[in-house]
Amino acid sequence: GAGVSQTPSNKVTEKGKYVELRCDPISGHTALYWYRQSLGQGPEFLIYFQGTGAADDSGLPNDRFFAVRPEGSVSTLKIQRTERGDSAVYLCASSFGQGRGYTFGSGTRLTVV
Amino acid sequence: KQEVTQIPAALSVPEGENLVLNCSFTDSAIYNLQWFRQDPGKGLTSLLLIQSSQREQTSGRLNASLDKSSGRSTLYIAASQPGDSATYLCAVRDPLYDSWGKLQFGAGTQVVVTP
């Protein structure tokens, strides 16, 4: 597509529930990044995919967070047993490779109540 | 660990004034530095990217400078307009900590340009 698409744009969930956030990158972009942005802060790195594999997941806060990119295109960020502290905007970005030509999506605003 | 700081956190100027936004980073060994704009409820739009070998980049009314030795970058926006109201973020790509193109961001400067 023309840009990075993230769905849903907003998600409200109850504490303890499971959520999935989807990212559809620009066609042909091999690199895909997930970032998390808390209110009043800059985005913080979560995970990086090169193709289908997670090359760097050092930013995932704990084992409740998991992400996949099975066909090297669409990626899904999965959060189990959500907590109120998980509330943030989750941003996805794609690039030609290793940070060249970053394009960010509009993000998914997750609210855990 | 690289730390990126942006001062001030918020800035309000009347239309027509020049904007000066500051970004500092603790480790000078960076690949590049980018300035992004973020509108409420939107993603980030890349404005300017300065490679480590460059001193500045310009695009229209925007000019960004980079002084690696002092760990500073400045974004200048000339003749500000109400449409420039947004949050401006700087981000560095640091080879020591980030092998994969991941970026480290400052917290941003929220800019309001009043008509």
The helix fraction of chain B, in percent, is: under 10%
Residue ranges of chain A: pLDDT <50 for 5 or more in a row? none
What is the succession of H and E elements of chain B? EEEEEEEEEEE
Number of helices of chain B: 0
* Helix proportion of chain A: under 10%
Q: Quick recap of the structure?
A:
The complex is a heterodimer of chains A (113) and B (115). With 113 residues, chain A is mainly β.
Describe this structure in words.
The complex is a heterodimer of chains A (113) and B (115). By secondary structure, chain A is mainly beta. Chain A has no helices and eleven strands. Chain A has strands at residues 5-7, 10-13, 19-24, 31-37, 44-50, 53-56, 65-68, 75-79, 88-95, 103-104, 108-112. In chain A, strands 2, 4, 5, 6, 9, 10 and 11 form a seven-stranded mixed beta sheet that branches. In chain A, a hairpin with a 7-residue loop joins strand 9 (88-95) and strand 10 (103-104). Chain B is an all-beta fold. Chain B starts with a strand and ends with a strand. The model of chain B has no long low-confidence stretch (mean pLDDT 93). Classes of the chains: A mainly beta (113), B mainly beta (115). The interface between A and B is medium-sized, with 29 and 24 residues.
Write out key terms for the chains shown.
heterodimer, A: 113 residues, mainly beta, 7-stranded mixed sheet, 4-stranded antiparallel sheet, 11 strands, 0% helix, globular, B: 115 residues, 6-stranded mixed sheet, 5-stranded antiparallel sheet
Write the layout of secondary structure elements.
The complex is a heterodimer of chains A (113) and B (115).
Chain A: E1 5-7, E2 10-13, E3 19-24, E4 31-37, E5 44-50, E6 53-56, E7 65-68, E8 75-79, E9 88-95, E10 103-104, E11 108-112
Parallel strand pairs in A: 2-11
Antiparallel strand pairs in A: 1-3, 3-8, 4-5, 4-9, 5-6, 7-8, 9-10, 9-11
Chain B: E1 4-7, E2 10-14, E3 19-25, E4 32-38, E5 44-51, E6 56-59, E7 62-67, E8 72-77, E9 86-93, E10 104-105, E11 109-114
Parallel strand pairs in B: 2-11
Antiparallel strand pairs in B: 1-3, 3-8, 4-5, 4-9, 6-7, 7-8, 9-10, 9-11
